[in-house]
TrEMBL record:
Domain DDE Tnp4: 125-270
Record protein name field: Putative nuclease HARBI1
Organism: Astyanax mexicanus (Blind cave fish)
InterPro entries to which the protein is assigned, alphabetical: HARBI1-like (IPR045249), HARBI1_animal (IPR026103), HARBI1_dom (IPR027806)
Family, per entry: Belongs to the HARBI1 family.
One GO MF term: hydrolase activity
Length: 337
């Protein structure tokens, strides 16, 4: 918990990013921490930073030994180790969980109602294709209708662009309707775990159910026209949400050069993680200008250093990945006490 003096002048700009890395690292620290400190073993924090840089750039070469110290094969290995750890079921379920309690459902419905007056909507559903290289096995089933290889990913957004459910495992040729029918979300509604009267909004590619509403294919009456207009405006949340999500990560701008199984894991780790708990329960770092001189004069001084409550921990936005990983590398490898 010691902040090296060489980093103090950088903290005003970078402490939110460092705090995000610490928060994510604490989720999987027991899994990814090296078992030894010999031979410059890569610390858990740097593994998370390397993973973030890879996701931000989409290129493992930009995390190479010229910049960060570890070799490219080592970086590739630790990046996938971190991704596998962060996509463990018990971690994913902490942050992506479709609402089933009346209080949360009512809140979601109120937020959707404010968009276009469409009542009782808890989520908007759609599928999106993540481009991949041609797999060596069953290559043809990954070719989608636009003639490129992909993973067809089902995603559900709420009115505030939070992801409520995601299914990133089906080949590109799989229809959206089948993905939904086979999903756990369908079972939630079919078994009554989601209270009656709650609706999802989907496009015409989804089957019409009591709780999955699709637009009219032909509008005859004024009521049908108004329904389609409200449906389109409300469901546009998921289209904008997917667009914003893809624009944030360069790795999604071109084909991901991994096996389909690993791509599914990468998709899961790209999903936004919400804010951590209150700052007094998570190790966060900052330093006031008043205390900077004290830290410069006393390298080993410890303290309770918190960042303001309600800081938005958007893990991947506004991260200068190249500079941040350089800072962490200097912190974890070259600083000597």
């Amino acid at each position: 918990d010691i902040i090296p003096p060489t980093l103090l002048r950088l903290l005003p700009n970078f402490y939110p990013q460092l705090s995000r890395i610490i928060f994510v690292t604490d989720l999987v620290r027991d899994v990814i921490s090296p078992s030894t400190t010999r031979s410059n073993a890569i610390p858990a924090e740097l593994k998370v930073a390397l993973m973030l840089r890879f996701l931000a750039t989409g290129k493992m070469q930009q995390c190479s030994a010229d910049d960060l110290g570890p070799s490219q094969p080592t970086i590739s290995r630790v990046v996938m180790q971190t991704i596998m750890a962060l996509t463990a079921r018990h971690i994913v379920m902490r942050f992506i969980d479709f609402p089933t309690t009346p209080r949360v459902i009512q809140q979601k419905q109120t937020q959707f109602m404010q968009i276009a007056g469409f009542p009782r909507v808890v989520g908007a559903i759609d599928g999106t294709h993540i481009k991949i290289i041609a797999p060596s096995i069953n290559e043809d089933v990954y070719v989608n209708r636009k003639r490129y290889h992909s993973i067809n990913t089902q995603v559900v957004f709420d009115a505030e662009y939070n992801i409520l459910d995601v299914v990133p495992k089906w080949p590109g040729s799989t229809h959206d309707a089948r993905i939904f029918t086979e999903s756990g979300l369908n079972k939630l509604f079919e078994t009554g775990l989601v209270p009656p009267g709650c609706h999802l909004l989907g496009d015409k590619g989804y089957p019409l159910r009591r709780w999955l509403l699709t637009p009219f294919s032909r509008t005859v009456t004024e009521a049908q026209i108004n329904y389609n207009r409200a449906h389109r405006s409300t469901r546009s949340v998921v289209e904008r949400g997917i667009g914003q999500w893809k624009r944030r990560f360069h790795i999604l701008h071109s084909e991901i050069r991994y096996s389909p199984e690993k791509v599914c894991r990468i998709i899961m780790v790209l999903l936004p993680v919400p804010s951590p708990p209150e700052c007094d329960s998570v190790r966060m770092y900052t330093v006031s200008k008043i205390n900077q001189r004290k830290y410069m004069n006393n390298k080993r001084k410890n303290g309770n250093l918190y960042i303001p409550v309600r800081v938005i921990y958007d893990l991947y936005a506004d991260i200068s990945a190249r500079l941040l990983t350089r800072i962490l590398y200097h912190y974890l490898f070259t600083v000597r006490w």
